[in-house]
Automatic annotation (TrEMBL):
Transmembrane segments: none annotated. Pfam families: HEAT_PSME4_mid. SUPFAM superfamilies: ARM repeat. Keywords: Proteasome. GO terms for cellular component: proteasome complex. Residues 310-503, 510-825 form the Proteasome activator Blm10 middle HEAT repeats region domain. This is Proteasome activating protein. The keyword Cell membrane does not apply. PANTHER family: PROTEASOME ACTIVATOR COMPLEX SUBUNIT 4.
Amino acid sequence: MHMYNAWLPPPVAEETKREKEAFAGVVKSVKESYKPDDPESVYATLKWVSVIDLFIKAKSELSVEDVSAIVETGLDLFRISENKLYAQIRWGNILVKLLNKYRKKLSLKVGWKPLYDTLIHTHFTRNTGPEGWRIRQRHFGTVTSLVRSCRRFFPAGSAFEIWSEFRYLLENPWHNASFEGAGFVRLFLPTNLDNQDFFQHEWIKMCLEHWDSIPNCQFWNSQWSSVTARVIKSYSFIDWESFLPVLFNTYLNMFEVPVANGSGSYPYSVDVPRNTRFLFANRTVTPSKAIAKSIVYLLKPGGSAQKHFEKFVNLLEQYYHPSNGGRWTYSLERFLFHLVNAFQKRLQHEQLNKDGNEQPGLFLAKPDRVSFVSSVLKLIDRGQYSKTERLSETVAAATSILSYVEPSLVLPFLASRFHMALETVTATHQLKSAVISVAFCGRSLFLTTLLALPINSDYVGGSDSFSDLLMISLSNALLGMDANDPPKTLATMQLIGSLFSSMASLEDNMDEAAPFPSFSFSEWLDEFLCRLFSLLQHLEPSSVLNEDLRSPATSGTFLVEDGPYYYCMMEILLGRLSDSLYKQALKKISKFVTTNILPGAIAEVGLLCGACVHSNPREAVVHLVEPILASAISSLKGTPTTGFGGRGTTNIFQSSKAKPMLSPAVETSIEYQLKVLSVAISYGGPELLRYKEDFKEAIVSAFDSPSWKVNGAGDHVLRSLLGSLVHYYPIDQYKCVLHHPGATSLEEWIDMKDFSVDKPIMAPNWHVPTDEEIQFANELLKLHLETALDDLLKIIQSKIHSDPGNEKDHLKVTLLRVDSSLQGVLSCLPDFRPSHRNGVVGELDHLPFMIAGATGSRVGSTELRQKAASVIHETCVYLLKEKSDDSILLLLVIRIMDTLGNYGSSEYEEWSNQRQAWKLESTAIVEPPVNYIVSSYSKGKRRPRWALIDKAYMHNTWRSSQSSYHLFRTSGSMFPSDHVILLMDDLLNLSLHSYETVRALAAKYLLKTMKRWPSTISNIVLTLAENLRNSSSPENVVLGSCAVLSSQTVLKRLTTDAKALSAFLLGILSSSHHESLKAQKAISELFVKYNIHFAGVSRSIFTTPRKSRRRD
């Protein structure tokens, strides 16, 4: 079982055991969907492709027999789908994923000729077919990817056949056919074990002669460098010594760098036919990956490759210098990245196979590693302070990897550069790069310090130890937090997070075995918090706050917008503090938060409080949540009220002039307190139950306020409180539970690929809602969802307001209460029951099972979701009739419809945002598989436990969004409930609204619902196509119709739906009567997009009407 699945919340992890059986059922359904006597039935199998992809992404434990069966079935379907490009794209893409994921477990043979015939028939003949160019481009990319994935499965003799097939094309280098020949050789030639007999000395010589036949052509170089790189890596028995001068000279020539006053480009480059460049996707940049891979695998003990590499580096290193940047910098940066990455992979392979059948005499020894690292350090030295941020980041990552290989060379170099950056006065930008480098190498510095390895101190220039370097970096980190220097501040926070991720705990009195035996963490913590508070007080939002209806509790400063470093730093720091230091920090943070109002740093202060609560909910709730909550309630008392918050009494003001107002100071204060509170309680869980009545009072009072800002702050509190009560989330995530065997003061990091379910101590603790939490959540739903729905009906049916302004405000607040309630529980509120073909409504408990996933415990009922849908439908009808020009109310209604109808979509958006943020932080907290400091070798990269728990949490969020998403797309007998149909009809009407913002948002959510329920697409296309045909359709209706019709969801459906296709085409052909320029432009763009993305049409749709008439 994959670690992420074993670490899921217990109720979800138990359900994953059913996925193997579910996948077997999918394989069976795919085979049953295709009928050998009906080639067009391949389209019936396409609905299962996304389901197979679902199991891959879910990392489910599948039977190898089932995987092998679906791969063989998929290959058969791909072969027989000739001229059906869309079908081949779908099956080809999923086959690539399956073959890549299970490549070491599958035992099958794949012929190369059918794949070649597909390429020739589709892309190298004049009969191009009717498909649009975008589909043809995707098809070529899919086929070439499939060929690359299948190469390892080509049978013995394939290499000889392929070379014989394309060799004649290479005979005349001045003919354009030679470029095609080189492209086909690169694409098809296998380098697997079955074909190793083909690659002999004579073939290498012939290959290099062909390569040398066309000079100064980057396309030609790319093809041959790729072929030779794969051969060099795969077959270590080949002797390349006699070819090394030619190879390195060619590699150097491929880096188009300027010499003297030259431009850096080939003076007389050879042009390649445009079609060839397009088909073989040649980039005009240097093939850095192939060159780096070749160099790394050419290195042999006692060979001359290292000497050639040193000369190579000596010539290129000057172009890494910041003053010598240019368009070649990207190629050089990629070269450094792939060079170190390939070197790491080679060392890992050698260590894991040193007891195997491979020749140990070819493995790199200590002198070889030292020589290689010494050469690469020259490139790192030049590129560390590059003006190109990507190169400086690559340098930091490369330094980190190499520090585990040869710490005696890399760490003294790192220390000298850090001291140099501290001492510089004019080049202050160097400090940021130096700090980031220490952040990336923090763990190797710790290990080297604690294990007392012998170090060459020539670089350091004294007796400074690495322990001193770590203490100096931590001390200077305090000075690095500056509101006026965001890059340096973020680098500093990254450094603190990286260093403390390695340490098991932070205590005031560290023992002698600790990395900082004489360091006072109590004093450092006090100074750190003082600096942090000063930073927060001087923050200013980097952009104008957007006070829309769903604005997040964020202030827009660089600490939040420019990466997750601030939040990760606070979580790690507070999670690793000892009890005494934590209480010391909590006391200071509590005093700061309760005595300051910082409207410009709402999110930052909230995240600070949230980190405290996450680390120790019991203590933090008392010292942070309770005083903030009490202060907010106190501030709200005595302020004017509207009665819209759910108390059951409504103050109806007869005149808009009598509407009460809050002073700006009071409004700002209350908004700040409530928004900080909303972020702070995200992980409070059962500790919040003691304040049940206070939370109810605060939320109701916030919704009762005449201030829209305060209403929005109450929305945040309600959402966050419901999520904290009913969602699954990890607790004690940042506590150390595994100590490093060689240094107990450090945490042992975890290799995900070496995971075993026999280590339960590593698994995270999850917040699983208690009965009391669920009961409280249901109380809140009754108060702010059910009651709000009743209020909505009263407003629109009984006309309780005589003043339009009061009615609008009441509607806004009531809709906001509904929205925040639904956003709080997300998919914990049961979904609608689907209806079946016979009209019977199905039960959710009896639906087919695909993958496990749940956001939290179930609250509320399906009936509550149904009631909400019915009331929101009536509200939408009322608003379109009475207040069609009020975009604020309409946007609120649309968002509620999305939450109601698109079950799980909010979780998917949350997962997508979290995944991007995690990627930013992950590179600095990686221990490579090869670690010569402690002689530790693993199958994969090691990461801190907290980071892997974070990934498991995100994996559960993704699973919860997908657990029921595909159920209704694959079943022909299940249809959306009547409530979903009502919501879709409303969204369809709103997607044709006169306001562009309303149209765009409604269309977005309508398309999401259509994608989940494909059976609804036909009727919607019929309606929208009729709008194009109708000469009286206003401009906004035409624009809205075109926006929906031009979506991929609709265009894909036209491939297999005759009714939708005919209506779509007739709508476009009959639309010339529209006089509006915008309407005609939208229709023209729709037609062009349809042509570009036209995927062909199934022949079966032309026979369907005839068959149906016979039945009649």
